[in-house]
Amino acid sequence: MLRASVSRLEGIMSTSPKLRMFVAIALSVLLLPEVIAAQIPGLGREHTALTRLRPADVHLANQTIMVQVNPVDARAAGMTERLKKLVTNRMIGVNKNLREVSKAPYYLVDCSITRYEYNERTEKKKLLLVKDQGTFKIITASLEASYNVVRTSGNVTLFGGNIPAVYKREFQEGVDSAPVKAEVEDLLIGSVVGSILVKLTNTEEKLDVRLMGQSGLSRFARLAEASQWAEYIESIQALPEHKVDKDSKSSFEGDRHHNLSVAYEARFYETMWKDYQRAEQYFELADSAIRKARQYDPREGEYIKAQVRLAQGKKYFDTIKERFPKDSEIRKPEGADLPQPPPPQGAMTNKDVIDMVTNGVSERLIIDQISEATIKQFDVSSKGIIQLTTAGVSDKIIDVIKSAMRKQAPAQQRKPGRP
To answer: Greatest CA span in the chain, whole angstroms?
Structure first.
């Protein structure tokens, strides 16, 4: 379709010098900001993509399901089986623990197609940029469905809703290829199914996030775009601090902390399904950074959007922890949240590791030093991990520290006099 339209436009332009000039000027005006942004570092608006997995509104765990579809509108009778099959297959495809049954399910997904309309018509229309008229086929279709998710034990309706789906397109005869009726129906069904599955299955969300700042910050945007978050955080933190103005504001420091919050937010989403402790730490770092950014400029819209987005992510995380409790989260050792005792003389601590990182000692040498230390007294509480992460200590080193403390714990718990 696009190729045919371009070819037709080229044919028109070849016969009209004025039109060629008009198109060239229009393209120059449209592309000028992008050209300037590409030539002047820091002027463009860099963005990065974050991904997070949104938990389903209803958790269907290790249970049987049955989907039934009723055609309230008789015109939709031929679509019921397709809708049923697609909902069932997509649910089981996403959640391998679900099992379809033909009777006595634990969950019943009860759908009704309440309205279906399909219409085709042809119409003469004036073509853009030329005096000729063209014949267009106009297809309009709509599908409305209602659904309820019922727990059959006790006949409890968990939730439900109404879903409208609309299709309207124009196709020029001889240029565009119009879909057949069955293809349009499949598009409508797919739209309805997608709206239902958002409620019933974990859904991946793609977030387009803006990175703030001028050349001092934007030159590191490629690290963020490549999801090299550890390097990005280290680079942003290494920049010299800018002074605030008389009103205690600094656009640079605000943008720096906003971008740090985005990086920690990305790590939060990466870990919130698999490592609750690490995810908590990244959330606290992200939340602290964005709050600091708003202290520098409380009215900046991007800072506010970042705080709202992060708060929504925290709600998802709380839901995940509630549905999938981990043993390590349930049975915390006694005194885990109490202040750490003073380290014995000669013990290796968080401060030793931070000093080595600050002075440029390689990751391999730091890990060797940790392994060879006779006495280890690392703080692996939430505050201790945040201290290490903020200082630029890599995830690999932190994992080695946590592993060393876990190995050391049994020896510390032996009672005196017992072999």
So the answer is: 102
